[in-house]
Amino acid sequence: MKGTRPRVGLPAGFAGLDPPAVWPRPRSASKPERLAAGVETLHGVGPTLARRLARIGVLTVGDLLWQPPRRYEEPVPSRRVCDLFGEDEAMIEVVVRSASSRRRGRLRILTARVADDTGEIKATWFNQPWLEGKIAPGTHLRLRGRANRYGFAVSSYDLEGDGATTDYAPVYPASEDLAQKRLRDLHVQAVALARDAGEPLPASVLAGERRPLRADALAAVHGPRELAEAEAGRARLAFDELLVLRLALARTAAERERAAAVPLGRPGELVARYRTSLPFVLTPDQKRSIDEIDVDLERSIPMQRLLQGEVGSGKTVVALYALLRAVEAGRQGALMAPTETLAEQHFLTIDELSAPLGVRLVLLTSSLRAREHAAARQLIASGDAQIVVGTHALIQKEVDFADLAVAVVDEQHRFGVGQRTALVEGRSPHVLHLTATPIPRTLALTVYGDLEVSELTLPPANRKPVVTAWVTEERSSEAYSRLRRHLDVGRQAYVVCPLIEETETKVARAAEAEAERLRSAELRGYRVGCLHGRLRPAERRSVMASFKAGELDVLVATTVIEVGVDVPNATIMIVQEADRFGLAQLHQLRGRVGRGEEQSYCLLVSRSKEELTEGASERLEAMVATTDGFELAERDLEIRGEGQLLGARQSGYSDLHFVRLRRDQRLLQRARDVAAGLDDEGLLADDVDRLLGEAEHLGES
Hints:
Helix content: 25-40%
Number of strands: 20
Distance between the termini: 67 Å
CATH superfamily of the domain at 269-456: P-loop containing nucleotide triphosphate hydrolases
Radius of gyration: 29 Å
């Protein structure tokens, strides 16, 4: 046009002018230095607080940003002291008249007389000793909580106008020594750095999906003005997680398609003899899973199947079937377990079932003596070892299989992607992954998108559900009275403790100290053994053999008995300090009893209810309410969220911090569609590389 000035220095596409042929890619969203810095770089975080944060998975500033609130405080009415009634939640604005503190066992109680113009009431805080120096007479407070017959139980408080009691304040996963107020203060500092999180999505995707910027989404999640704002932010962050996850799964699926396995054909005479020799009838779920495995083994594409089974549902029987399919084809099978205790238990179980069939087994663990280790490796390399059971030792460079056809990875969520891959690298065997941690099917299909899924939901017909009760420490004597009644009629029992030995920083009972105490106290006169992971392998095998043979009445143990231990005569379990265990772990522990025809019991002993966090109480209530592992898994999703149930260590891919799969199905479909369009362009490749790269080392920590 005549008279227009030349567009000197303006890039193509500026202000709607000629668009470029290709828009530039967004900057990589890899963690900048400030977000990767440790939490101790934040104001008010010393070594003690840093250790407490580490126990809930918060190590860096970025971890705070990616820690979603469990919920938000609902709006509650503001009331005068004289108008408080019932146990409805309310807000009061008061002045402190006096304050004092006391101990009740391990519980520290802070009490303050507070008042407004209409009256006075006693306010109470539990386990918040740092408040003592701050709540002095004359201090103005805004308190949120419930009135009861003892006064006003404080759930949150606003000191010096920090907004902690405002409507929709975030509520984070806390612990007994880490209060909500402290967590909120730290999240506010982290959100101030949210812009450092970068923007990984292309502008075209942001516009097409109508999503906010990542920094805005983080700010909305951690400090919403209303719930709709928090949900919009959560959905954007969940979309990121699902999108990167789909791209990662697409990459692993493509690698699987390029691999080739030798088909094993139809089942033969060996597995027919195996099925006939079993001293029980297979459940319908076991039969269906075996049929699905048979179909997989006929293909040239390597089987990648996840077999998830309820406690006691018979996964080992199905896994051995798959291993025997390799043996009858003249090849080898291998089973890799995460711990020596579990590998040893598997070896004993499988050897008992396969020895009558003439199948040769070898056990390979790191604790074998050098000569035994070398002999086992020789048998594996020559092919004389038809089935190999072991730990991480199976993936050492010096271990060379003659002809590996089927690999079984037990408790596969405990291994990193790199460790699982190392077992099959260069071989392309058929792989069966086992997990006793029940996973809702939608979550399994999303996170394990490259695996087919089989489920064992039904226990053997002769087993009764375990009756579960929750008691607090002051009633623990009743639990031991019930346990002794079982022992007196010839049954056996477990007592589970959360630690191996006492430490100065933790108050949990140690297995060794507890075993010694019980021998001279509640279980005097009974035969008490102790089992934990620091025993030498020969000692562990000896203790377990004695317990299985009935030479011990009670086994005091740590979580080494969580999986793989089968003693039908054990009919009662006491779990000490059960509030310190996760829900899935409690369910696995409970599965050690109820393995025979007798009615069995699990008694969960915890600290007083006032000392427990909200999440701990919810876990124990869920354990009492149901023995259905899949129902508990759904409840675990509600309590902890998908990311912590299937965190990076378990999924081998990504922490799903913000995903809520039961309501995010449409979001999941959109992520699939967008991922299909992005894959060829290589966008988000840095994020995918980072996630897969991190997963390579997860099982090693």
